[in-house]
Each structure stands twice: as C-alpha cells, then as structure tokens.
Amino acid sequence: MTAAFAYDALQYPALIFPQMHPSRLAAIGRLHGLASASPIQCRLLEVGCGDGLQLLSLALAYPQAQFVGVDMSQTAIARGEAMRQQLGLTNLQLHAADVCQWECGATPFDYIVAHGFFSWVPASVQDTLLALCQRMLTANGIAYISYNALPGCHLRRMMWDMLQQHTSSINEPLQKIALAREFLTWLQASVTTKTPYADVVRHEAQDLLEKTESAVFYHDDLAELNLPYSITDFAARAHTHGLGFLAEAEYHDSSGASLPDHTAASLAQLAAGDVIRREQYLDYLKGRRFRQTLLCRQEVAIVRPAQADAVLQMQATGHLYEDAAFADTDIGKAHPGLRRFCASGGAALTTPNTLVASALTAIGNAFPCALSVDTLLQQHLATTQGGGNLHEDQHENLQEIRGTLCKALLIAFEYGLLTLHIDAPAFANSPSEYPCLNPLSRVQLENGQDMLTSLRPSMVRLDSQLGLELVKLLNGKRDRIALLQALVERMQAFPVVGADGKESIQTSAWWQDHLAGQLESGLQLACKMALLDA
C-alpha cells in the first residue's frame, strides 16, 4: 500500500504541535545569534501537513504572514481546504502533491517544518526535503524536522519487525490493526521469563496497546517504512545538503540539568566541545527515541552557548507554581530565603533571588498567556528603583539586574520550566462581557468535533456535555445573562443522573439554580484553555 493511499484509507488524527510554532523557533534562533523572522510577517512551509490544522491556527493568529502546506493525501487536503474556506483565510495555501514533484515557487521561506514525515518516507524523499530546505530557506531561516531516533528506537524497532512479519499478509487497515493488537496481547501474556528481554517486550507491548491511538498505531508502527537515525547520522545527512545543526525544538531535551555533577563533567569531556558529539552521548544516556531537530544554513555563524541578553526581547510562558512545601524541607529550613518553582512536567528550579522569584510567580499566574520579559523587568524596577529612568550611577546596577533576570529565565527555559517566544499568539486572559470562541474552534464544533484547537495553540478535548454546550454559545453576542438563559434551555434536554443512579429530566428552575454559580468558572476555564478571542 502506498503512503498516499494509506493516509487516504485511514485518516491520521489532526493534531497541533506547539514545539514547531514559529514564535518558539524564532526565540531559539535568536538565542543563538540568528536574526530569525517574527511570526507576524513570516513565510512558513509545512511538508506533510495533513489537513493543515497547524497552519489554519497560524494563519488565524498571524494574518500578515504567509503559510503554505503540502501533503500527498487528497482527502486530508480537501478537509483542510474546506476549513480554510469556512474561515475565509487568504494567507494560507494547501496543496495536494508529492513533494518530490511539487513546484514551491521562487520566494524563500523563513521556516520549513516537517513533523512525522522524515522516518516514514524513502531516503530519496528525505534527500528531497533536505535539498528543499537548503534551496528555499532564507539566510536566517530555520528548518524543523522530526524523526525516530537511535539508540532508543532500537527497542521499538524490535516490535516493528515482529509486527511487520505477523501482519504482512493483511492490507486492509482495520484488519491489520486488529491482528497486530491480538498479537501484542498474546506476546505480552506469553513472554513470562524473568529476563531483560522479556521485561522490554512486555513494556513495549503494553505501551503500544494502552497508549497508542489506532490510527497513529497504524501509520507509525505498522507502516511499511520506519527509519530511525542517530543524531550523528542525521546531522551528517543534513551537512551534505549545506545545513547545520542549530538545536532541538524541545530545548530542554538537550539540557544536562538532571545529570549528576560527575556525569555532566564526563559528558563534557567526551563531547570535547563538539555539539553533535554531546547530543549523541546524551542520547546514549537518555535512550532518546524521537528528535525534533532544528537546522539552519551551514554558513550561518551560530552563537554557542545561548545568549542570555537576547531573552530581554522575548516573552515567557509556563505552567509553573511555587512549591509551598519546600520551606519545610531540610534544604528549605537550612536556607530560609530559597524558593522552589515546579512545572507541570516535573521540571524544578530553586532561587534565592526575589526578582527571579517574582518573575516566575507572575509567569505562572499568567499562564497560558505569555508575558514580556522586558515588562517584568520594568515592573520590578518600578517597585524597587522608583521606576525605569535611572541616574547615571545606577546604570551598572540596572545591567546587573537585567543580566540576573535574563540568565535565570534562560536557565528555566533550558530546564523545561517555561518556554520563550517571539511575538507569541494573542488570546483572552479573562472573559469579556461578550465572550467569543475562536473561529477555528467554532468551525470544528460545526463539523461535529469535540477536540478543539486553542490559540496557544494546543488541543483541548471537551469531556462534558455542559462544557460542550457552553462553548457552542460563545459567539460574542451574548452577555452573562443571555448565556445563562441559553445554557439553561440547552441543558434541559439532557437527563441528569441522580443519587439513586436513575436518569431524570430537570426543570428550567433547577438548571437555573444549578448553573448560576458555575457559569463564570466555566468562562474562566475557557480562558485558561486559550479558547477565547482577545
């Protein structure tokens, strides 16, 4: 079955990948000395765009920028084109074409991105993509290419080999998935020996059975092609096309923050100043399975390490909080001024500095909205220095304060505590008098979807009928009174499960009383999910 036919036969789920957003790519580029384009007026090409969901969200957020997507799947592009027309977007073009034969024009791109593409196409197509990046990137352009990585993928590759053999006689997608899952269930239960091999097989089988959605399982793990690469080999391939390694899109993946001091020191010795060697040995330590590598033109002078001063012109966002229990720990008691901040993903950072602590607190409180680093600095100066207009003898102190903040936020970025942006997308940070759902989410609701695209962007699943009915009403024309009345009318049609487990239809008065105290919290939650227009 050809790749084009496979993706037409079974739809790959449309998803958003925040890590390849141009506001984040631009920030990484500028940290390393590139004059990366702001997403506000950039040109971006996505290869293997599916139905273009990521591009649709970008085109809405940045109406002055230009976006282009290409994919072999006729059905996926048709879905995306229908949404593009519904939204009236003129700054997005979607093409159903083979990238090896497609003519992209003569105007270069500031960003070229390809997610979930490289490892699932033949080497000749991979070379076409790399050549396209070399030919069509602007002087300070950035390419994002994700791929399955070694050594970690040796484990999943073992499962892929087994599944290929077991399902080789079946072509129909749903039958192939069923047969593969049946085999994995048997394998998991039948490998009973207590050996490292058995432990790995059981873990991999369980992971595929429990965590992988069927369409993703089919296209990723049952694909005819699945080619993993080490960072060493990938960088060498890129080099032959005039491209150089910039960084990883998930910037903290390259951090050694979690390594013991002696391991970090020996890693530095092994790397001997070579960034690719360091990345490779770090992959050996972490067993990395997937990379999201950023490339730029080979002739660009990449600044290493990252420039902390560049952070001042950026914005920061992070789902982080202060660890209130830290003060009662042995370390907290020994150092009363030390404060610990944690992110939802497990990253943590301690600081004794009040400026850094107040900045991290503000960033966490503002999430998911991005805060200007310069604004954070000016707010601190206004409260501690009497404002930003300092006397000449205070300039040295200002430089020290600025440097402290920028270095701390760069470390927090490297740790994965927050993300840095250039011109992050805008959305409501509090519900207005007439709350309005973003246009893309409205189109998705009209098309019967319950997975909506936020303006961060990210994917949001509405898992309650009440939440679904509320967002459907957010058309920018209803105030709180009208929203509550309309929501009551809608919810009357749905049965309520009582304490006895029985369903019953409730009266308008019951729903009025039940929803009166929930409406505002529901609107606040929609803001926290970045679903509402600014």
Automatic annotation (TrEMBL):
UniProt xrefs under InterPro entries: CFA/CMAS, Methyltranfer_dom, MeTrfase_reg_dom_prd, SAM-dependent_MTases_sf, WHD_PKMT
This protein's name: Class I SAM-dependent methyltransferase
A GO molecular function held by the record: methyltransferase activity
A GO BP entry: methylation
Entries under PANTHER family matching the protein: CYCLOPROPANE-FATTY-ACYL-PHOSPHOLIPID SYNTHASE, FATTY ACID C-METHYL TRANSFERASE
Domain PKMT C-terminal winged helix residue range list: 433-531
Species the sequence originates in: Thermomonas beijingensis
Keywords recorded for this protein, A-Z: Methyltransferase, Transferase
Superkingdom in the source lineage: Bacteria
